[in-house]
Automatic annotation (TrEMBL):
Recorded GO MF terms: oxidoreductase activity, acting on paired donors, with incorporation or reduction of molecular oxygen
UniProt protein name: TIGR03557 family F420-dependent LLM class oxidoreductase
Enzyme class: oxidoreductase
Native species: Orlajensenia leifsoniae
Keywords: Oxidoreductase
PANTHER family for the chain: 5,10-METHYLENETETRAHYDROMETHANOPTERIN REDUCTASE (PTHR43244:SF1), PTHR43244
CDD domains: Tetrahydromethanopterin_reductase
EC code: 1.-.-.-
Length: 318
C-alpha cells in the first residue's frame, strides 16, 4: 500500500500547497494528490489555484514524492489535447512521478466556459472520446479524431516521456467502471466500496487503486469537527448532488442540514489514532492500495507531526 497526502487546493493558496507537499515528502508520504478545480466548494475555503502550475513547482522541489491529479476533467473546460500535453510535460518534469487522474467532471468547475454541462450519459460519452484522444496523442506523431462531441485536427505532442503517465480513471458506478477498464491504467474513487474495486478487476482493469480517506486532525475532537463542518459539510451530500451544483453558494445551501454528528460519522475527527486507522481501514479493506489522507482539520503542520509520530508507524506495520 502507498500512503498519500491530499493537497486541499480549495483551502490553501499555491505557495502553501507547495510547502505542504515538501513537508509531506519529509514526513514519509509516498504521493500527493490534488484536485483540478476552478472554484472552491464553498466560500469559506477561499482558494482554487491552477493545479498544473502547483504540481510543476512541487516536482521541482521534491525528489521521491509521486504526484497525481485527483481528478481532472478533460472534456469540457479543457480540450483533451491540452491535458495530454500537460500530463506529458509534467511526467517529464517529475522524472516519471506523475499520475493523471481523470473524471467526467462537476458543474462547479466546467460550466464556467459557457458550453453548458450535459447530463450524465452524455458526459460519459464525451469523457470516452476525451480518453480516446489522450491515448491517441500519447502514441506520438500527428493525429486526427472526428468524434460526436470532440475533434482533433493534425495535432502532435512533441515532448513525450519514454514511460507515459499512469492514467487513473474516476469511478462511481458501472458506466464509469467500464470506461476505466477500457482506457485506464488504474482507478480513482472517493467511497470505500469494494464493488468498485471488484467491478474494475472483473472488467479486466489493472493497476493502482486510488482513493481519499476523510480525516480531520486537531488536538481535540471538538475543534476537528468544527473545522470539518465549516469547510466540508457539503461532502456528505453524495456524488450525484456534488456533480450538479454550479457555484459555492449552492454547496453552502445544500449543506445547511448537515449536522456535526454527520461529520463525526464520516470523518476521523480529533487526535485518536485508532479512529483515524478505522476510517482509513474502510478503504484498505475495500481493496484500495493508494490511499490519500485528506486532512480537513485546522492545523496542517500538527497533522504532519501526528502522521510521522503516530499514524504512519501503525499504517506501515499494518
Amino acid at each position: 500500500m502507498k500512503i498519500g497526502y491530499k493537497l486541499v487546493a480549495e483551502a490553501f493558496g499555491p505557495q502553501e500547497l507547495v510547502r505542504q507537499a515538501v513537508r509531506a515528502e519529509q514526513a514519509g508520504f509516498d504521493f500527493v494528490e490534488m484536485s483540478d478545480h476552478f472554484h472552491p466548494w464553498v466560500e469559506a475555503q477561499g482558494h482554487s489555484p491552477f493545479v498544473w502550475n502547483v504540481l510543476s513547482a512541487i516536482a521541482a522541489k521534491t525528489t521521491t514524492l509521486e504526484l497525481a491529479t485527483g481528478v481532472t476533467c478533460p472534456s469540457v473546460r479543457y480540450h483533451p489535447a491540452i491535458i495530454a500535453q500537460a500530463a506529458a510535460t509534467l511526467a517529464l518534469l517529475s522524472d516519471g512521478r506523475f499520475t493523471l487522474g481523470v473524471g467526467s467532471g462537476e458543474r462547479l468547475n466546467e460550466h464556467i466556459v459557457g458550453r453548458g454541462f450535459p447530463g450524465v450519459h452524455e458526459r460519459h460519452a464525451m469523457f470516452d472520446e476525451a480518453l480516446d484522444i489522450i491515448r491517441l496523442l500519447w502514441k506520438g506523431g500527428y493525429q486526427n479524431y472526428d468524434g460526436t462531441y470532440l475533434k482533433l485536427e493534425d495535432a502532435r505532442i512533441f515532448d513525450l516521456p519514454d514511460v507515459l503517465p499512469t492514467l487513473a480513471v474516476a469511478v462511481s458506478g458501472p458506466d464509469s467502471i467500464a470506461l476505466a477498464a477500457e482506457h485506464g491504467d488504474g482507478l480513482f474513487a472517493v467511497e470505500p466500496k469494494s464493488d468498485l474495486v471488484s467491478g474494475y478487476r472483473d472488467a479486466g482493469g489493472t493497476g493502482p487503486l486510488y482513493c481519499e480517506a476523510p480525516l480531520a486532525w486537531a488536538t481535540t475532537e471538538e475543534a476537528a469537527v468544527k473545522a470539518a463542518h465549516t469547510t466540508n459539510a457539503w461532502s456528505v451530500a453524495g456524488w450525484k448532488v456534488l456533480a450538479e451544483l454550479p457555484n459555492p453558494v449552492n454547496f453552502e445551501a445544500a449543506a445547511v442540514t448537515v449536522r456535526e454528528d454527520d461529520i463525526r460519522e464520516q470523518f476521523a475527527c480529533g487526535p485518536d489514532v485508532e479512529r483515524h486507522l478505522e476510517v482509513i481501514g474502510q478503504f484498505t479493506d475495500a481493496g484500495f492500495d493508494h490511499v490519500a489522507l485528506m486532512n480537513t482539520g485546522p492545523d496542517a503542520d500538527g497533522f504532519f507531526d501526528f502522521f510521522e509520530k503516530e499514524l504512519r508507524p501503525r499504517l506501515v506495520t499494518g
